[in-house]
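DATA SHEET
Item: assembly model
Revision: 1
Owner: S.N.
Input lines:
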Amino acid sequence: MDERQPPADEPRAEPANRRRVLMLGAVGAAAVVSIRPALAQTAGSVLNCEIPVPDRGRAGSFIDADGGVVAPGTKGAFAPPPRPFKGEEVKRALTGSQLPGTSYESNRAYVNYIRRLQRGQGGFTCFASLQMPRG
Amino acid sequence: MADPLFRAPTVDLLHVCPLDDAFTAIFHRASGITHLLVSPAPEILAALADAPLTQAALRDRLAAAYDLADADPQALAARLAELVEVGLIDAA
Amino acid sequence: MRHSLAVRIGPIGYRIGADWRAPIDRLRDLYRDYPSADVPDFTVRLSATRPWRRWIRPSVAIAGDFTLPEAAPLPLAQALLAAEMAMNLQLALGGRRHLLLHAAVVERDGQAVVLTGESGAGKSTLATLLAARGWRFMGDEFALLDPVTGLVDPFPRLVSLKNGGIAAARAAWPHARYGPTLAGTPKGTIRHMVPDAEAIAAMDVPATPALLLFPRFGAASDSRHVPPSEAFVRLTQASTNYVALGEAGFAALTRFVRTVPAMAIDYPDGDAAVAQLEALWAMR
């Protein structure tokens, strides 16, 4: 413990009671708590949302290379995938990998379709949630 | 071997929000994680924001700004270890 | 979907479809005073599954953009409940325009009381009782906190009354319109109540949050202040999208707990809760 007093003929140092006391705490105590999301938020992560290609109102329609929805059998267009894609799969496809069960061309067609989704179309909210930085 | 240097994110990488007398909420932008801190954690983060410091230099810096009543180096080490563990500071 | 309904509840538009007409007709009747939704934010689809295996009863499966994979289908007769649950789920998991808190909200003079609690804590019943005593009903399931303005937007969906709350609501609102009594649901007996005309007419009128309550049923009347840090942590757990909103969620929630006083109240019955709230309101 430092018990020195300043010499009387030197200017006084800042009095100790001007500085706020800062307790460092006990070794076993905690000073930081991280917020863990509630279960509902984990369950609601991107893993659990789906994007059908195309939306169910146009089930069976084909997808052309630009992601437009066209009549089944249209030349150069691709048959729709057999099941909706999961959010996690689309997230990966948006960053360069390929959607499951697709060729290079059909993957590009489906991704273009997804990128063109508008509000109100099936899968839009799932796609929008993939754009958010977290979740 | 040199003493480890502790470094905190610069102020623009954290969103710091005191909530009440005891707790400060911090949003860590890089990770998107929210943490709740009590003294001395927010003060330590602020002291390390300008430049990395060793534990001894940090202690001196805190002592200059505050009255360190219980200046136990093990306590300060424990606070630093906690902050490293949750990813709020780096030890290099 | 052969049958569908577009309905707007506050700022949220839904499109609900089914491959058989009964649940859509029922919803259309209960929501008949609500505006339609031009561009729905969320879609819900109900499918009646009639599995070939005889020992599995016909059930209704819900689908939408967001699903919970382990959700069990409900019996066909509970299709109305399935639709309401699905509407909640799509908003809870997909909502990004507001910070969502599990809470009931009532308003007076432009200021809102937010009553937060788990399912079954009595929020719906309390909100209904307060609405019968001059408060405007703004919702019983979610508080929609606008991250830009800090205001609460209304979400006056059908009130979901459970078990003992049904009788309490009927006593307070004998002339309200009610849906069918649904017995044997996973949460017991459920009955939906259509909110009053004032609540529906004001569904686009936000309110400034002025009091946050953590009500707890079943003990003698008591209350204590809840400091902002405790309110903050409890609300992160009561939110369905705090994490997904990132920094906007952090800013919205810290602003909320720093500006809105919070109290935890114990109450033995609905009347006592109302009395405590009125007393706290007068003192704010």
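QC remark: Residues 64 and 77 of chain A are 4 Å apart (CA to CA).
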